[in-house]
């Protein structure tokens, strides 16, 4: 996949979440923290607290499972599309 397309996809995902609610990203981060999928490290920088998020093994497993599930979804869609093409012949 084109790297620019990947970057654009991530941007659109973030923008879509912000469109729903300005606090949606914080909700997602809180949920991932509660699940143990990410950790947070806080550091003070020029009297402001900065948060640095890092993925955990649980988060890596979530990605792996999502990709496996997505492959199944793609296979189903491909199967349906092939049937639709065959019906037109």
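Q: What amino acid sequence fits the structure above?
A:
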């Amino acid at each position: 996949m084109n790297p620019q397309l990947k970057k654009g996809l991530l941007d659109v995902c973030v923008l879509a979440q912000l469109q729903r609610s300005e606090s949606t990203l914080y909700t997602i981060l809180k949920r991932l923290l509660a699940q143990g999928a990410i950790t947070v490290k806080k550091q003070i920088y020029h009297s402001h607290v900065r948060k640095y998020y890092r993925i955990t093994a649980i988060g890596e497993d979530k990605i792996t499972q999502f990709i496996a599930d997505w492959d199944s979804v793609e296979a189903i869609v491909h199967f349906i599309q092939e049937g639709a093409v065959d019906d037109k012949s």
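Q: And what stands out in the fold?
A: The chain has a mean pLDDT of 88.
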